[in-house]
Design goal:
single chain, about 425 residues, mainly alpha, two-stranded antiparallel ribbon, 2 strands
Length: about 425
């Protein structure tokens, strides 16, 4: 997938990082950040205020969050980071952020270096959302240039918080996709991810490495970020990766962790898809052992695994097996506003899942309004919806709601009648 075109913007002056202490914050400061509201709730609070006044109130709250990211209290700093994350996930804030991007970057850098655990996780996630808001251009490149060395230091530091390392593994992947301007640096970052997830490979003699569950999650995150960056690699890189890893990745399918097994399965499917893009004659005929292993996971009935894990695993591996055997993909349609997007490949799915992990329920909104994300998925400029169309959409949704309510009521009545006809069996 080609990288989106770059968008020009103004630069920013980078400030030096000052240390902070974890002393208690003042009552006044805590009161500002005690309630973290998103764009929707802000609009509701505005009530009868004009749209301009509501927007001004919203930006005022964002400024408070930015100020609170350097507060003395770790709890207040994390609350402020979470508040900014929620806002960036649910609203386009390009102009507001553009003027303050280096201030926000400084705060993220400070929290990553001086914070602990959950605060570092929140800061890493905010870095991704900041890049998503700025898009693929000089502004996000400046942000990433500052934060990339810190991400890599934490990622490779065995003494760092495991939560921070997990978050950096995920954030480094997406930030690289969005903001990295040198493909050689992309390859270097992929090597950092490889050095982690390969430690979970089952050894050739069949013995399993001793890896704790939190560390396994770190390796899973690294594998998923590695797979994400594969989607923007050229054919020569893909050929080298296939030669190096395709025969070894199936060893991860034997992991005790269901998330690792699923990540490995989806990555294998992605590799086969990319291999067929490079060479259409690639097939799975020489992979009988792999197909047998995938088939076993698609019908897994091990009693020591939970029902939920087995259900989730079976669904994924049925699709993975089809991908390896015949290059098939179960397409999925994403509807947003008056538009729809089809996820029709493993490459597209990995990219969509990566963005959705950070923007969450705001994904449909970003698909509608975020120019960068629309560029990534080839959706073109944002579609303007007039009031008449919007009113028609609301009417159709109401009709569907009423229809579903009536159908539910009818179904309930039918089941009630059926239950009444059942014969009670007495005790013997």
């Amino acid at each position: 997938m080609p990288k989106p075109k770059k968008r020009n913007g103004r630069g920013g002056q980078h400030r030096s990082v000052q240390p902070f202490s974890d002393e208690d914050a003042s009552i006044e400061t805590l009161s500002h950040c005690s309630s973290l509201s998103d764009a929707t709730s802000v609009a509701e609070e505005a009530g009868g205020e004009t749209e301009g006044a509501a927007e001004e109130d919203f930006e005022c709250k964002l400024k408070v969050y930015i100020d609170c990211t350097v507060d003395k209290s770790a709890k207040t700093r994390q609350g402020a980071l979470d508040g900014l994350k929620t806002a960036m996930a649910t609203k386009i804030l390009y102009e507001f952020i553009l003027e303050r991007r280096m201030t926000i970057t400084d705060s993220i850098e400070r929290c990553l270096k001086k914070g602990k655990g959950e605060e570092q996780r929140a800061a890493a996630s905010l870095a991704c959302l900041l890049c998503i808001q700025l898009g693929s251009g000089i502004e996000s490149e400046e942000v990433f240039k500052t934060l990339k060395p810190i991400f890599k230091t934490i990622l490779n530091d065995g003494t760092a918080s495991i939560q921070a390392r997990q978050a950096c593994a995920t954030s480094l992947g997406l930030c690289t996709l969005v903001a990295e301007d040198d493909i050689l640096d992309v390859y270097s970052t992929m090597e950092s991810f490889e050095s982690l997830f390969t430690r979970s490979y089952v050894r050739e003699d069949g013995s399993r490495p001793s890896v704790s569950p939190p560390t396994t999650q770190l390796h899973t995150n690294a594998l998923l970020s590695w797979a994400l960056l594969l989607t923007i690699c050229d054919s020569s890189c893909i050929t080298a990766v296939i030669r190096k890893h395709l025969a070894k990745l199936p060893r991860l399918l034997e992991s005790e962790d269901v998330n690792m097994r699923i990540a490995a399965g989806e990555t294998i499917a992605l590799l086969f898809e990319l291999a067929r893009d490079v060479d259409p004659d690639t097939d799975g005929e020489d992979w009988e052992v792999l197909c047998a292993k995938l088939g076993a996971l698609a019908t897994d009935c091990n009693k020591h695994r939970t029902k939920n894990d087995k259900r989730k695993q079976r669904s994924v591996f049925r699709d993975v097996l089809k991908a390896v055997e015949g290059g098939d993909f179960q397409a999925e349609t994403i509807r947003f506003g008056t538009e729809r997007m089809i996820i029709d490949s493993w490459s597209r799915k990995r990219t969509y899942d990566a963005f959705r992990e950070f923007v969450g329920s705001g994904m449909n909104y970003h698909l509608q309004a975020n120019e960068f994300i629309r560029d990534v998925f080839g959706l073109g400029p944002p579609v303007l919806i007039d009031s008449a169309t919007l009113k028609a959409m609301k009417s159709s949704r109401l009709e569907r709601h009423l229809y579903n309510a009536a159908a539910f009521k009818a179904r309930t009545k039918a089941r009630s009648k059926f239950r009444d006809k059942r014969v009670d069996v007495g005790e013997f």
